[in-house]
């Protein structure tokens, strides 16, 4: 399951959902090698996947309110295509990711962020 | 938050804003504040407009009152889009967090007070920055 690229044609039908999952979003820098696991402690075994420890930006800066009006802040967590970036790429913790998602969806509804933009 | 069509004259806009504030009043809500966020480019086309004038109304009221305000907004012709966000629960949570943080800062003895002061100011500055 170590396919991390955008060019590989899925060989079997079963690979189709996997290929979809590993499509890289363009704005998040180059990620070579296997994808990072969700966090430490998944298995005590081989840790060769583990890259740098990403910290949650909101926890560090103690930002309490994630406001839908703050387009600059929200735009950092949105890909070029307009998609919301998964938290395994941005390092955001779960409660903040949930609030961030809500704020992004509110901003989309009030035309501050696009639903989709042509890449 | 309300988006109004961008091609309104200044005085028409003022008139519209006071009309909307009047709607809020007659429906029974309390207007806490109005903010004009200016003309912005919309992220997508809304009713054939590429730009829009953003207004923010901070309203307090019961559910029925808010529903009435929304109904009136739907009918108002210059309003092209609006979004109602409930903030009371969020505000309660923020106040609680702030209180806990202040209590923690005050609980520290006087000696590391110099260290506590910068943390208090950064905490205080972080909140308006997020808004």
Write the layout of secondary structure elements.
The complex is a heterodimer of chains A (119) and B (131).
Chain A: H1 15-21, H2 57-61, H3 71-75, H4 87-90, H5 94-109
Chain B: E1 2-4, H1 10-27, E2 30-46, E3 49-60, H2 63-75, E4 79-82, H3 88-107, H4 113-130
Antiparallel strand pairs in B: 1-3, 1-4, 2-3
Textual characterization of the structure:
The complex is a heterodimer of chains A (119) and B (131). Chain A is mainly alpha-helical and 119 residues long. Chain A has a domain at 52-119: 30s Ribosomal Protein S18 (Irregular). Chain A contains 5 helices and no strands. Chain A has helices at 15-21, 57-61, 71-75, 87-90, 94-109. Chain A is globular. Residues 1-20 and 37-41 of chain A have low confidence and may be disordered. With 131 residues, chain B is α+β, with helices and mostly antiparallel strands. Chain B folds into 2 domains: 2-85, 2-Layer Sandwich (Alpha-Beta Plaits), CATH 3.30.70.60; 89-130. Chain B has helices at 10-27, 63-75, 88-107, 113-130, and strands at residues 2-4, 30-46, 49-60, 79-82. In chain B, strand 2 (30-46) and strand 3 form a beta hairpin. Classes of the chains: A mainly alpha (119), B alpha+beta (131). The A-B interface holds A 61-70, 73, 106, 108-115, 117 and B 1, 3, 37, 40, 42-44, 46, 52, 56, 81-83, 85, 90, 94, 97-98, 122-123, 126-127, 129-131.
Q: Which key terms come to mind for this protein?
A:
heterodimer; A: 119 residues; mainly alpha; 30s Ribosomal Protein S18; disordered N terminus; B: 131 residues; alpha+beta; Alpha-Beta Plaits; 4-stranded antiparallel beta sheet; 53% helix; elongated; disordered C terminus
């Amino acid at each position: 399951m170590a396919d991390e690229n955008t060019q590989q044609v899925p060989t079997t039908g079963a690979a189709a959902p996997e290929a979809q999952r590993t499509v890289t979003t363009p704005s998040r820098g180059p990620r070579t090698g296997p994808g990072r696991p969700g966090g430490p402690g998944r298995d005590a075994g081989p840790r060769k996947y583990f890259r740098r420890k990403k910290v949650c930006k909101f926890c560090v800066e103690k930002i309490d309110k994630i406001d839908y009006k703050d387009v600059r802040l929200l735009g950092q967590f949105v890909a070029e295509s307009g998609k919301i970036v998964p938290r395994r790429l941005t390092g955001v913790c779960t409660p903040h990711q949930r609030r961030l998602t809500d704020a992004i969806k509110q901003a989309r509804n009030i035309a501050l962020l696009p639903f989709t933009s042509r890449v | 938050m309300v988006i109004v069509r961008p091609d309104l004259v200044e005085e028409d806009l003022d008139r519209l804003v006071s009309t909307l504030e009047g709607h809020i009043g007659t429906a029974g809500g309390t207007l806490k504040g109005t903010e004009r966020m200016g003309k912005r480019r919309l992220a997508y086309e809304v009713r054939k407009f590429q730009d829009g004038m953003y207004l923010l109304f901070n309203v307090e009221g019961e559910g029925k009152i808010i529903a009435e305000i929304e109904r009136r907004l739907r009918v108002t012709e210059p309003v092209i889009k609006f979004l109602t966000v409930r903030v009371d629960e969020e505000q309660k949570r923020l106040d609680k967090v702030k209180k806990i943080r202040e209590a923690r800062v005050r609980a520290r003895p006087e000696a590391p007070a110099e260290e506590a002061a910068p943390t208090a100011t950064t905490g205080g500055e972080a909140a308006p920055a997020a808004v």
